[in-house]
Design goal:
The chain is built from 9 helices and 4 strands. The protein has 294 residues and is of the alpha+beta class. The chain is globular, with a radius of gyration of 20 Å.
């Protein structure tokens, strides 16, 4: 009986995904309209950050506050959704827009998060490092730049037929590992979020794992529960909390967060649905940092 129940649960999850995909298509124009309306509200996103849930708030260092006060827009796009019937709706692209400031040249910082499933059954968001063009002060103290350099070096090696093990012998790998070991996790700038990578799961591995799971749900293969335990993150991960932060921003933009009141959704309070982005507003917490707005 348990195998029948498990198959039904998987089929229900597929239905929820289909609903999420269709909702994404249907609401795109309204989110664009809302973004235009938000632009007319002074210090809107600074106020939102002030009211951020723990997934975001506890990652903000005092040195980040002034730069975050220059945030004037946050956009979420389910970029892999092709139409109402095709595309992975759990993958998201976050775009942060900043007014001119003294910390970095970039007006827009974009980061894509791909929903992936491992061969062992774990599923979640993975990404690739995105660089920031710093001016005089690098808020990540070199950590982000090192992550981007290693990423580019790995792509170069993979392009020539080498493997991840080969990358471990490079200067870029050794330099980043040394930097991570010298840097306390609780002192890392939230801007290191742009260096988050997550688990090393290729698109091919994810497709094969998803196909296998679908066959199990349909009863095509003999049922065997997949091990969903999260594998360890790579030693070169500079921002282990990247998935939590991405989900919190996505929830604020797309779900039932009362953003007009400057509140974000805490993922720790969210329901365990298939996309992991639903939740309720949480009560404002006192921050150890100076306020961003005002």
């Amino acid at each position: 009986m348990y195998d029948i129940l498990a198959r039904i649960e998987e089929q229900l999850a597929d239905i929820e995904l289909e609903s999420l995909r269709r909702t994404s298509i249907a609401t795109r124009s309204k989110f664009l309209e809302r973004a235009v309306a938000i632009e007319a509200i002074p210090d809107f996103w600074s106020t939102v950050i002030d009211e951020a849930p723990p997934e975001i708030d506890q990652r903000i260092q005092p040195r980040d506050v002034a730069a975050l006060s220059c945030l004037i827009g946050v956009d979420v796009e389910r970029f892999e959704v092709q139409d109402a019937d095709h595309g992975e709706p759990r993958s998201v692209k976050l775009r942060f827009t900043f007014k001119p400031n003294e910390w970095f040249v970039d007006e827009n910082l974009e980061k894509k998060f791909y929903w992936r499933m491992s061969r062992h059954g774990w599923s979640g968001l993975v990404s690739g490092p995105v660089g920031i063009q710093w001016k005089d002060i690098d808020l990540t103290e070199g950590l982000l730049d090192m992550a981007v350099k290693l990423w580019k070096k790995e792509e170069e090696l993979y392009g020539s037929g080498q493997t991840r093990d080969d990358a471990k012998s490079t200067e870029e790998f050794k330099t980043l590992i040394e930097k991570i070991e010298r840097t306390p996790q609780d002192a890392i700038s939230i801007f290191a979020f742009f260096g988050f990578r997550g688990h090393d799961i290729s698109a091919r591995e994810s497709e094969e794992a998803t196909s296998r799971k679908r066959r199990l749900a349909e009863g095509a293969d003999q049922w065997k529960e997949m091990d969903k335990e999260s594998p360890p993150l790579p030693d070169t991960e500079i921002y282990p909390h990247g998935e939590e932060v991405a989900i919190a921003f996505s929830a604020a933009k797309e779900r039932d967060a009362e953003v007009s009141d400057g509140e974000l959704v805490s993922d720790s309070e969210s329901s365990e649905d298939s996309d992991g982005l639903q939740g309720e507003n949480y009560e404002k917490r006192l921050s150890k940092k100076p306020k961003i707005s005002g």
